[in-house]
Design brief:
By secondary structure, the chain is an alpha/beta fold. The chain has 14 helices and five strands.
Length: 331
Protein backbone atom coordinates (compact mmCIF):
# COMPACT_ATOMS: atom_id res chain seq x y z
CA UNK A 1 0.00 0.00 0.00
CA UNK A 2 2.76 2.45 0.92
CA UNK A 3 4.50 1.72 -2.37
CA UNK A 4 1.25 2.41 -4.23
CA UNK A 5 0.79 5.74 -2.42
CA UNK A 6 4.37 6.73 -3.17
CA UNK A 7 3.79 5.91 -6.85
CA UNK A 8 0.60 8.01 -6.97
CA UNK A 9 2.36 10.92 -5.29
CA UNK A 10 5.16 10.71 -7.84
CA UNK A 11 2.63 10.71 -10.69
CA UNK A 12 0.87 13.75 -9.24
CA UNK A 13 4.14 15.60 -8.95
CA UNK A 14 4.92 14.76 -12.55
CA UNK A 15 1.48 15.75 -13.85
CA UNK A 16 1.25 19.00 -11.89
CA UNK A 17 3.90 21.38 -13.19
CA UNK A 18 5.72 23.51 -10.61
CA UNK A 19 4.28 26.99 -10.27
CA UNK A 20 4.98 30.36 -8.72
CA UNK A 21 2.07 32.14 -7.11
CA UNK A 22 1.63 35.90 -6.89
CA UNK A 23 2.96 36.49 -3.33
CA UNK A 24 6.04 34.33 -3.90
CA UNK A 25 6.90 36.07 -7.15
CA UNK A 26 6.47 39.49 -5.55
CA UNK A 27 8.71 38.50 -2.66
CA UNK A 28 11.40 37.43 -5.13
CA UNK A 29 11.14 40.57 -7.26
CA UNK A 30 11.15 43.04 -4.37
CA UNK A 31 12.26 41.36 -1.14
CA UNK A 32 11.65 43.32 2.04
CA UNK A 33 14.78 44.39 3.95
CA UNK A 34 15.77 41.80 6.54
CA UNK A 35 15.58 44.42 9.29
CA UNK A 36 12.10 45.59 8.27
CA UNK A 37 9.41 43.87 10.37
CA UNK A 38 6.57 45.44 8.40
CA UNK A 39 6.45 43.56 5.10
CA UNK A 40 2.99 44.93 4.28
CA UNK A 41 4.37 48.49 4.30
CA UNK A 42 7.24 47.42 2.05
CA UNK A 43 4.95 45.85 -0.55
CA UNK A 44 2.68 48.89 -0.39
CA UNK A 45 5.67 51.04 -1.38
CA UNK A 46 6.69 48.57 -4.10
CA UNK A 47 3.29 48.58 -5.77
CA UNK A 48 2.84 52.33 -5.50
CA UNK A 49 6.14 53.35 -7.09
CA UNK A 50 4.78 53.41 -10.68
CA UNK A 51 1.96 55.77 -9.71
CA UNK A 52 4.37 57.91 -7.69
CA UNK A 53 6.76 58.19 -10.65
CA UNK A 54 3.89 59.16 -12.94
CA UNK A 55 2.81 61.90 -10.50
CA UNK A 56 6.36 63.28 -10.36
CA UNK A 57 6.55 63.44 -14.16
CA UNK A 58 3.13 65.11 -14.53
CA UNK A 59 4.13 67.67 -11.89
CA UNK A 60 6.94 68.89 -14.19
CA UNK A 61 4.37 70.62 -16.41
CA UNK A 62 5.01 74.35 -16.32
CA UNK A 63 8.34 73.90 -14.55
CA UNK A 64 11.83 74.92 -15.69
CA UNK A 65 12.67 71.39 -16.90
CA UNK A 66 9.86 71.53 -19.46
CA UNK A 67 10.27 74.75 -21.46
CA UNK A 68 7.59 75.46 -24.03
CA UNK A 69 10.07 75.04 -26.88
CA UNK A 70 10.83 71.46 -25.81
CA UNK A 71 7.14 70.61 -25.37
CA UNK A 72 6.35 71.95 -28.82
CA UNK A 73 9.23 70.00 -30.36
CA UNK A 74 7.95 66.77 -28.83
CA UNK A 75 4.42 67.36 -30.10
CA UNK A 76 5.77 67.12 -33.66
CA UNK A 77 6.17 63.40 -32.98
CA UNK A 78 2.46 62.89 -33.67
CA UNK A 79 2.87 64.23 -37.21
CA UNK A 80 5.53 61.66 -38.09
CA UNK A 81 4.29 58.76 -40.27
CA UNK A 82 6.53 56.38 -38.27
CA UNK A 83 4.49 57.18 -35.16
CA UNK A 84 1.21 56.49 -36.96
CA UNK A 85 2.54 53.17 -38.28
CA UNK A 86 3.84 52.18 -34.84
CA UNK A 87 0.56 53.04 -33.15
CA UNK A 88 -1.73 51.33 -35.65
CA UNK A 89 0.30 48.24 -36.53
CA UNK A 90 -1.55 44.98 -35.89
CA UNK A 91 1.69 43.28 -34.90
CA UNK A 92 4.31 43.98 -32.25
CA UNK A 93 6.16 47.22 -32.89
CA UNK A 94 8.90 49.39 -31.41
CA UNK A 95 9.63 53.09 -31.85
CA UNK A 96 12.76 54.86 -30.60
CA UNK A 97 12.72 58.66 -30.38
CA UNK A 98 15.71 61.01 -29.99
CA UNK A 99 14.10 64.24 -28.79
CA UNK A 100 17.28 66.40 -28.77
CA UNK A 101 15.77 68.76 -26.21
CA UNK A 102 17.18 72.05 -25.03
CA UNK A 103 16.75 71.06 -21.35
CA UNK A 104 18.13 67.52 -21.57
CA UNK A 105 20.36 67.28 -18.52
CA UNK A 106 17.76 66.74 -15.79
CA UNK A 107 16.29 63.43 -14.51
CA UNK A 108 12.86 64.60 -15.69
CA UNK A 109 12.30 66.65 -18.83
CA UNK A 110 9.64 67.50 -21.39
CA UNK A 111 10.19 63.96 -22.73
CA UNK A 112 9.13 62.65 -19.32
CA UNK A 113 6.05 64.87 -19.40
CA UNK A 114 5.10 63.52 -22.83
CA UNK A 115 5.66 59.95 -21.61
CA UNK A 116 3.44 60.58 -18.59
CA UNK A 117 0.72 62.22 -20.70
CA UNK A 118 0.76 59.23 -23.07
CA UNK A 119 0.46 56.81 -20.14
CA UNK A 120 -2.61 58.73 -18.98
CA UNK A 121 -4.05 59.03 -22.51
CA UNK A 122 -3.88 55.35 -23.53
CA UNK A 123 -6.75 54.19 -21.25
CA UNK A 124 -8.87 57.16 -22.35
CA UNK A 125 -8.33 56.43 -26.05
CA UNK A 126 -8.23 52.61 -26.08
CA UNK A 127 -10.43 51.76 -23.08
CA UNK A 128 -10.29 48.18 -21.82
CA UNK A 129 -8.59 46.92 -24.99
CA UNK A 130 -5.15 48.15 -23.85
CA UNK A 131 -2.93 48.41 -20.82
CA UNK A 132 0.15 50.58 -20.42
CA UNK A 133 3.36 49.96 -18.48
CA UNK A 134 5.91 52.69 -17.90
CA UNK A 135 9.30 53.48 -16.46
CA UNK A 136 11.08 56.79 -15.84
CA UNK A 137 14.80 56.02 -15.84
CA UNK A 138 15.86 59.43 -14.53
CA UNK A 139 14.01 58.82 -11.26
CA UNK A 140 15.96 55.64 -10.53
CA UNK A 141 19.67 56.39 -10.56
CA UNK A 142 20.60 54.80 -7.23
CA UNK A 143 17.58 53.03 -5.71
CA UNK A 144 16.39 49.40 -5.96
CA UNK A 145 14.89 50.05 -9.42
CA UNK A 146 18.12 51.40 -10.89
CA UNK A 147 19.38 50.15 -14.25
CA UNK A 148 17.83 47.83 -16.86
CA UNK A 149 17.44 45.04 -14.28
CA UNK A 150 15.47 47.34 -12.02
CA UNK A 151 13.41 48.49 -14.98
CA UNK A 152 12.50 44.92 -15.91
CA UNK A 153 11.48 44.17 -12.31
CA UNK A 154 9.30 47.26 -12.30
CA UNK A 155 7.62 46.25 -15.57
CA UNK A 156 6.96 42.77 -14.18
CA UNK A 157 5.44 44.23 -10.99
CA UNK A 158 3.19 46.51 -13.07
CA UNK A 159 2.15 43.62 -15.29
CA UNK A 160 1.27 41.57 -12.22
CA UNK A 161 -0.92 44.41 -10.96
CA UNK A 162 -2.72 44.64 -14.31
CA UNK A 163 -3.32 40.89 -14.32
CA UNK A 164 -4.90 41.07 -10.88
CA UNK A 165 -7.04 44.02 -12.01
CA UNK A 166 -8.29 41.94 -14.95
CA UNK A 167 -8.71 38.73 -12.95
CA UNK A 168 -8.47 38.82 -9.12
CA UNK A 169 -7.98 35.05 -9.11
CA UNK A 170 -4.50 35.66 -10.57
CA UNK A 171 -3.32 36.67 -7.12
CA UNK A 172 -3.50 33.10 -5.87
CA UNK A 173 -3.44 31.05 -9.05
CA UNK A 174 -0.03 29.57 -9.73
CA UNK A 175 1.76 30.45 -12.93
CA UNK A 176 3.88 27.85 -14.63
CA UNK A 177 7.10 29.63 -15.53
CA UNK A 178 9.36 26.67 -16.13
CA UNK A 179 9.16 25.18 -19.57
CA UNK A 180 12.36 26.59 -20.91
CA UNK A 181 15.40 24.38 -21.36
CA UNK A 182 17.56 27.03 -19.69
CA UNK A 183 15.69 26.57 -16.41
CA UNK A 184 15.38 22.88 -15.63
CA UNK A 185 13.25 23.31 -12.51
CA UNK A 186 11.36 25.89 -10.52
CA UNK A 187 14.09 26.24 -7.91
CA UNK A 188 16.65 27.10 -10.56
CA UNK A 189 14.32 29.69 -12.02
CA UNK A 190 13.60 31.25 -8.61
CA UNK A 191 17.32 31.36 -7.86
CA UNK A 192 17.98 33.15 -11.17
CA UNK A 193 15.23 35.67 -10.45
CA UNK A 194 16.57 36.32 -6.95
CA UNK A 195 20.00 36.92 -8.48
CA UNK A 196 18.32 39.39 -10.86
CA UNK A 197 19.44 37.46 -13.90
CA UNK A 198 18.40 39.47 -16.96
CA UNK A 199 17.33 36.43 -18.96
CA UNK A 200 15.19 35.12 -16.10
CA UNK A 201 13.51 38.50 -15.76
CA UNK A 202 12.78 38.68 -19.47
CA UNK A 203 11.43 35.12 -19.40
CA UNK A 204 9.10 36.03 -16.52
CA UNK A 205 7.88 39.13 -18.35
CA UNK A 206 7.17 37.14 -21.50
CA UNK A 207 5.38 34.43 -19.53
CA UNK A 208 3.12 36.97 -17.82
CA UNK A 209 2.24 38.56 -21.16
CA UNK A 210 0.82 35.18 -22.18
CA UNK A 211 -1.68 35.44 -19.30
CA UNK A 212 -3.37 38.51 -20.79
CA UNK A 213 -6.64 38.24 -22.75
CA UNK A 214 -6.26 37.58 -26.45
CA UNK A 215 -6.34 40.66 -28.66
CA UNK A 216 -5.26 43.15 -26.00
CA UNK A 217 -2.61 45.79 -26.75
CA UNK A 218 0.24 46.31 -24.27
CA UNK A 219 1.98 49.69 -24.44
CA UNK A 220 5.42 49.93 -22.82
CA UNK A 221 6.57 53.55 -22.44
CA UNK A 222 10.23 53.98 -21.41
CA UNK A 223 11.49 57.47 -20.66
CA UNK A 224 15.10 58.61 -20.94
CA UNK A 225 17.01 55.31 -21.00
CA UNK A 226 20.11 57.28 -22.00
CA UNK A 227 20.16 58.91 -18.58
CA UNK A 228 21.71 55.75 -17.11
CA UNK A 229 24.56 55.82 -19.59
CA UNK A 230 25.27 59.51 -19.03
CA UNK A 231 24.92 59.46 -15.24
CA UNK A 232 26.17 56.04 -14.15
CA UNK A 233 28.53 55.62 -11.21
CA UNK A 234 31.56 53.27 -11.34
CA UNK A 235 29.93 50.73 -9.03
CA UNK A 236 26.58 50.50 -10.79
CA UNK A 237 27.81 48.99 -14.04
CA UNK A 238 31.25 47.72 -13.14
CA UNK A 239 30.66 44.32 -14.82
CA UNK A 240 31.27 45.86 -18.24
CA UNK A 241 33.43 48.58 -19.78
CA UNK A 242 30.42 49.99 -21.59
CA UNK A 243 26.86 50.26 -20.33
CA UNK A 244 25.51 49.03 -23.68
CA UNK A 245 27.88 46.03 -23.75
CA UNK A 246 26.16 44.70 -20.64
CA UNK A 247 22.72 45.00 -19.14
CA UNK A 248 21.58 47.84 -21.39
CA UNK A 249 22.31 45.89 -24.55
CA UNK A 250 20.72 42.76 -23.09
CA UNK A 251 17.42 44.51 -22.36
CA UNK A 252 17.31 46.28 -25.73
CA UNK A 253 17.99 42.91 -27.36
CA UNK A 254 15.11 41.36 -25.42
CA UNK A 255 12.71 44.13 -26.45
CA UNK A 256 13.79 43.70 -30.06
CA UNK A 257 13.30 39.92 -29.90
CA UNK A 258 9.94 40.40 -28.21
CA UNK A 259 8.55 42.50 -31.05
CA UNK A 260 10.18 40.49 -33.84
CA UNK A 261 9.83 36.84 -33.03
CA UNK A 262 7.80 35.88 -29.99
CA UNK A 263 4.27 34.66 -30.47
CA UNK A 264 1.88 36.18 -27.96
CA UNK A 265 -1.90 36.52 -27.63
CA UNK A 266 -1.42 40.30 -27.32
CA UNK A 267 0.15 43.07 -29.38
CA UNK A 268 3.13 44.73 -27.69
CA UNK A 269 4.08 48.31 -28.58
CA UNK A 270 7.31 49.65 -27.09
CA UNK A 271 7.99 53.41 -27.14
CA UNK A 272 11.40 54.67 -26.01
CA UNK A 273 11.75 58.45 -25.72
CA UNK A 274 15.10 60.00 -24.87
CA UNK A 275 15.62 63.64 -24.02
CA UNK A 276 19.01 63.74 -25.79
CA UNK A 277 20.52 62.06 -28.84
CA UNK A 278 22.11 58.62 -28.81
CA UNK A 279 25.81 58.47 -28.05
CA UNK A 280 28.30 56.36 -30.03
CA UNK A 281 27.98 53.44 -27.60
CA UNK A 282 24.30 52.99 -28.33
CA UNK A 283 24.56 53.84 -32.02
CA UNK A 284 26.96 50.95 -32.67
CA UNK A 285 24.61 48.32 -31.24
CA UNK A 286 23.40 46.02 -34.06
CA UNK A 287 19.87 46.06 -32.64
CA UNK A 288 19.71 49.89 -32.76
CA UNK A 289 21.18 49.94 -36.26
CA UNK A 290 18.47 47.49 -37.33
CA UNK A 291 15.79 49.78 -35.89
CA UNK A 292 17.20 52.62 -37.96
CA UNK A 293 17.08 50.58 -41.16
CA UNK A 294 13.46 49.60 -40.46
CA UNK A 295 12.38 53.20 -39.95
CA UNK A 296 11.79 52.67 -36.23
CA UNK A 297 14.04 55.57 -35.15
CA UNK A 298 12.90 59.19 -35.14
CA UNK A 299 15.19 62.16 -34.58
CA UNK A 300 13.20 65.27 -33.70
CA UNK A 301 14.32 68.83 -34.47
CA UNK A 302 12.90 72.30 -34.01
CA UNK A 303 12.24 73.10 -37.68
CA UNK A 304 8.52 72.34 -37.24
CA UNK A 305 8.28 73.92 -33.79
CA UNK A 306 4.84 75.52 -33.41
CA UNK A 307 5.31 76.99 -29.95
CA UNK A 308 2.47 74.90 -28.51
CA UNK A 309 2.60 73.20 -25.13
CA UNK A 310 1.10 69.98 -23.79
CA UNK A 311 -1.68 71.73 -21.92
CA UNK A 312 -4.90 69.99 -20.97
CA UNK A 313 -5.84 67.06 -23.19
CA UNK A 314 -3.64 68.06 -26.12
CA UNK A 315 -1.63 64.80 -26.00
CA UNK A 316 -4.79 62.70 -25.67
CA UNK A 317 -6.37 64.50 -28.64
CA UNK A 318 -3.23 64.04 -30.72
CA UNK A 319 -3.23 60.34 -29.89
CA UNK A 320 -6.86 60.04 -30.98
CA UNK A 321 -6.07 61.74 -34.29
CA UNK A 322 -3.16 59.35 -34.89
CA UNK A 323 -5.48 56.39 -34.31
CA UNK A 324 -8.02 57.89 -36.72
CA UNK A 325 -5.28 58.33 -39.33
CA UNK A 326 -4.53 54.63 -39.08
CA UNK A 327 -8.19 53.69 -39.44
CA UNK A 328 -8.52 55.97 -42.47
CA UNK A 329 -5.35 54.55 -44.05
CA UNK A 330 -6.67 50.99 -43.70
CA UNK A 331 -9.75 52.04 -45.60
Amino acid sequence: MEARIALLEAQLRQEAPPVLNFPTLCDILAPAPSDDPNRATHFDIVFKHPARDLAFAIAEEGGPNCPLKDQSQLLTLFARPQFTRWLNSDSHSLLYVDAALEAADKPLSAASLLSAKLVAAVPAVFGHTAIVLHFFCGLHLSDEWCGPKGMMRSLIVQLLMRLVDLDPETEWRGLQFVGDEDFANIDQFKKALKARNTYAQCTAFHRLLRELPKGMTVFVVLDSVLFWERNKTPTQFQEHDSFWDGWGGDVLGFLDELIRAWELPVSVKVLMINQARRGPGMRKLPVVQRWGKKGSVIELNNTLNSGEGMWGKRVENQLRRAVEKGVFARG
